Amino acid sequence: WINHQSHQPSAIRHPSGNTVRLETMSRTKEGVQESIVPYCLFYTLPLVGLASLYALGIWSYGGAMFAFGCIPVMDLLVSEDTTNPTKEQSSRLAREFRFKLIPAFWVPTQFALMVYSGFKFCTPGLALYEYIGIITSIGILAGSIGINVAHELIHKPSWWEKLLGRALLASVCYGHWADEHLYGHHKLVSTPFDPATSRFGESFYTFWFRTVWGTWTSALDMERRRLRNVAFPERILRDRVFLSCLSSLAVAACFGLLMGPYGVLFFFLQSPVAFTMLEAVNYIEHYGLQRELVEGAPSMKELEKRKKLGDYGYVASAFESVTPFHSWNAGETVTNYFLLKLQRHSDHHANGYRRYQVLRSFLASPQLPTGYAGCMVLATIPPLWFAIMNPRVKKVKSQIEYIKGTGINVFSDEFDVLARKEGSVEAALRKMNEGKKK
Fold first, then answer.
1. Whole-angstrom Cα distance, residue 132 to residue 99?
2. What is the largest CA-CA distance in the chain?
3. pLDDT for the residue 5
4. What pLDDT does 26 receive?
5. How far apart are CA 84 and CA 417, in angstroms?
6. Angstrom distances, CA of residue 416 to CA of 189, 345, 395
7. Which residues pair with 21 in a beta bridge?
8. For a pLDDT cut of 90, what percent of the chain falls above it?
């Protein structure tokens, strides 16, 4: 994760003050890509979905083939995107409304494709494998793109973006995840108390059961505590978990009215496929990365008690602060555009409200062996995943200890530029230490 010698920045600041520019596909003259076109890349998936639904047969699995076959291959063929926005770009691009339209337009797009897929599913006379293919393809699309877009939207302060995000989650029966993610996961990430953080040596399949159940019960507990002083029936009407279930049932009812009982069956079959895509991403994002307990921290028994009481702030304060060391990142360009820069996950956890177009990449952040799409495939084969990731986790932990010992902020813009210029974090640290000695 510290050896990126081939990935030089497009613009580096020489000690003399002059700027040397290098051309890459993902930069403008300064900073990051400002066009919205690359971020529209995931809108090709509905076209793939429509084509696969039209052709059926083995092509009914077209969505899965494209997501986990074509995208990882394209990641290997296209150079990584390690460019960061300038300060001026960060301020300006974050305010531009055109970037808000890209995730917003996905909402009607997904619902339209789901309706079309539902009618195809209700077609009599299809082979069993074709029915499974339809469910798999739409579930992958609704999970990998739809829930990811919902994630971007629910993090934003405007009411209409939050509403659109919750609408997408209602379409996959996972509305309760929103509040647990915002107010649970982001506080307790990389601790034993977060159901969405995978543990070292834990397989994806074990994690899936733990996180699906843990997220559900955590969301219920959060709402129970939030509304403990609210009387019935107002309490039910304000319960976000109840309302999320009601929203999903309303969507299911619409499918029933349009397509009959098989439409309802289609809706409830595609939902688990969709939220499994989400949990696969959760699995790889923090695998094996744990925050250390601070000196004098309470016992784990006391922390468990405080968590049950809803004192998440107290529990979080017992651990070191969340830093970019606690999330896995990936610079693969194609997946980054398909997932609205979700792979710059360290910066997302440091700045939850930061919009996708201005998320930053740090060379010192732990790096995955490939993009999320490829890692999701690896995660389904636990022995292969462990063989690749466990040594990487151990190496990252030892290097984190070394970096902490230097006292150097490796996540400053100045250090990141130096690291890219020198070719690695190690080389930049050596140079800075040599400078201190002089």
1. 35
2. 79
3. 33
4. 37
5. 10
6. 24, 16, 20
7. 11
8. 56
Regions of the chain with pLDDT less than 50 = 1-29
pLDDT tens column, 221-279 = 999 999 988 888 888 889 999 999 999 999 999 999 999 999 999 999 999 999 999 99
Our measurement of the distance from residue 61's CA atom to the centroid of its chain's CA atoms, rounded to an integer in Å, reads: 24
In this predicted structure, what is the pLDDT of residue 368? 93
Task: Tell me what pLDDT residue 435 has.
Answer: 66
- Helix (H) or strand (E) run with residue 167 in it: helix 159-170
Q: Is 275 exposed, middle or buried (0-12, 13-18, 19+ CB in 10 A)?
A: buried
End-to-end CA distance of the chain: 29
Q: How many CB atoms lie within 10 A of CB 103?
A: 25
- 206's enclosing H/E stretch is helix 204-226
The answer to whether the predicted template modeling score (pTM) of the entire model surpasses 0.70 is yes
Residue type, 405: G
Burial (0-12, 13-18, 19+ Cβ within 10 Å), 68: middle
The answer to whether 42 and 115 have CB atoms below 8 angstroms apart is no
- What tokens were used for 351? 């700045």
* Contact status, residue 340 vs residue 103, Cβ threshold 8 Å: yes
Q: How many CA atoms lie within 13 A of 430 on its CB side?
A: 7
DSSP string, 103-149: HHHHHHHHHHHHHHHHHHHT-TT--HHHHHHHHHHHHHHIIIIIIHH
Q: Residue 10 in contact with residue 23, Cβ under 8 Å?
A: yes
Question: What token pair was written down for 52?
Answer: 């696969």
DSSP E strand stretches across 234-328: none
Report pLDDT for 23.
30
d(CA 57, CA 62): 10
Q: And the tokens for 135?
A: 């469910």
**Tokens (6 digits) for 277:** 């895509």
Query: Quick one: tokens of 84?
Result: 């960061």
pLDDT in tens, 177-197: 999 999 999 999 999 999 999
Per the DSSP assignment, residues forming a β-bridge with 78 are: none
